[in-house]
Design a protein that fits this description.
7-stranded parallel β-sheet, alpha/beta, binds nicotinamide-adenine-dinucleotide, binds UDP-4-deoxy-4-formamido-beta-L-arabinopyranose, single chain, Rossmann fold
């Protein structure tokens, strides 16, 4: 298949693109590089051993989308492009609605016009809000606790409406839990701008000496050690999940929803310990207040993806942390950024 990957220069899009190429698909990337670097695409091409068509531009740019869909006979779209920082979304909600909602609307409008019938959308466990129990199944009630989460909910709803009106469409909503890890080569990985919001890149920067210590956001949750528990899924498992979902579902009309998680939860202190074991020394941390909006525990019931797609996460927390450490220690400043 020929797949348009929006946001393909970003963390998950890069790994998914590599997996697509490895499975024999053709990839066209559209990314405005607002949260990624051109250097990442060079590394993707090195790893894939082939070149990739790249359009530098905005997913909200309809004329550009028309050009992409005219230049390439695209069979399906993987839509990763978007803004993802929860805290920032509360400060800049209009920007989040514009990029995430208007961007998805523009993309889907262009897809309908150009008769591209399959979209795989990056949704998030954030659409479950504060779940009443764990593990979380796809049929749990949906809600949002911040503007970022609401943009994901709105796009899910929009895609359901569009699928109802255009029955030839296949819409795949993949709800990721907490992605982590990096490619085994150490050539591509997560390269956050500024201070990382997420736990794994933050600990990686403490380990490499870029940050002094980890602030643990609360140790008074109702969890075994009091710190927050999450379902950390290796980005390579996530990438494989995308390709399996695409291959299985691109001709299956309607809306298909899957959790992509491991089904296991780890606490903040367990993740820290896993890093210490790989790095071979203790890492500094201190406990601070809870982060507003955080929940105590969140992990997936991934049974639906296993039963109907034959997919399950294969990699554990130790492997994830090893891969993050290889990436972080080989690239302490992430992608060079020289070409941007
Ligand atoms: P990322 O920021 O690394 O990648 C997103 C990419 O989209 C970046 O390369 C960025 O430059 C690009 N982009 C942003 N706005 C754009 C625009 N207007 N036009 C074109 N390109 C644009 O993020 P990621 O972690 O790879 O996340 C990918 C997707 O998965 C996002 O939609 C995110 O919301 C979703 N998601 C991420 C996580 C996570 O924790 N990483 C969890 C659940 C869902
Ligand atoms: C994990 C745990 C924190 C940083 C977010 C989004 C979610 C999804 C994934 C996109 C929590 C604790 C963290 C730190 C800490 N993204 N923590 N110190 O909040 O589960 O999910 O990313 O869709 O929508 O909300 O991930 O990595 O920020 O936090 O103690 O410096 O680590 O309290 O328990 P989260 P996270």
């Amino acid at each position: 298949m020929r797949v348009l990957v929006t946001g393909g220069a970003g963390y998950i899009g890069l790994h998914a693109s590599l997996e697509l190429l490895g499975a024999g698909h053709e990839v066209v990337i559209l990314d405005n590089l607002v949260n990624s670097k051109r250097e990442a695409l060079g590394r993707l091409e090195t790893l894939a051993g082939q070149s990739v068509s790249f359009y530098e531009g905005d997913v909200r740019d309809r004329a550009l989308l028309d050009r992409v869909f005219t230049d390439h006979k695209v069979d399906a779209v993987m839509h990763f492009a978007g803004l993802k920082a929860v805290g920032e979304s509360t400060q800049r909600p209009l920007e989040y609605y514009d990029v995430n909602v208007n961007g998805s609307w523009t993309l889907v409008s262009a897809m309908v016009h150009h008769q591209v019938h399959c979209i795989v959308f990056s949704s998030s466990a954030t659409v479950y809000g504060n779940p009443h129990e764990v593990p979380i199944r796809e049929d749990f009630p949906l809600s949002a606790t911040n503007p970022y989460g609401r943009t994901k909910l709105v796009v899910e709803e929009m895609l359901r409406d569009v699928a109802a009106a255009y029955p030839e469409l296949s819409v795949v909503l993949l709800r990721y839990f907490n992605p982590g890890g990096a490619h085994k080569s150490g050539l591509i990985g997560e390269d956050p701008n500024g201070i990382p919001n997420n736990l794994i890149p933050f600990i990686a920067q403490v380990a490499v000496g870029k940050r002094d210590q980890l602030a643990v956001f609360g140790d008074d949750y109702d969890t075994p050690d009091g710190t927050g528990v999450r379902d950390y899924i290796h980005v390579l498992d996530l990438a494989e999940g995308h390709v399996v979902a695409l291959e299985r579902l691109h001709h299956e009309r309607g809306v298909h929803v899957y959790n992509l998680g491991t089904g296991r939860g780890y606490s903040v202190l367990q993740v820290l310990k896993a890093f210490e074991a790989v790095v071979g020394r203790p890492l500094k941390y201190r406990v601070v207040d809870r982060r507003p909006g955080d929940i105590g525990e969140c992990w997936a019931d991934p049974a639906k993806a296993t039963e109907s797609l034959g997919w399950s996460a294969k990699r554990g927390i130790g492997e994830m942390v090893e891969d993050v450490w290889r990436w972080q220690s080989q690239n302490p400043d992430g992608f060079s950024g020289l070409s941007d």
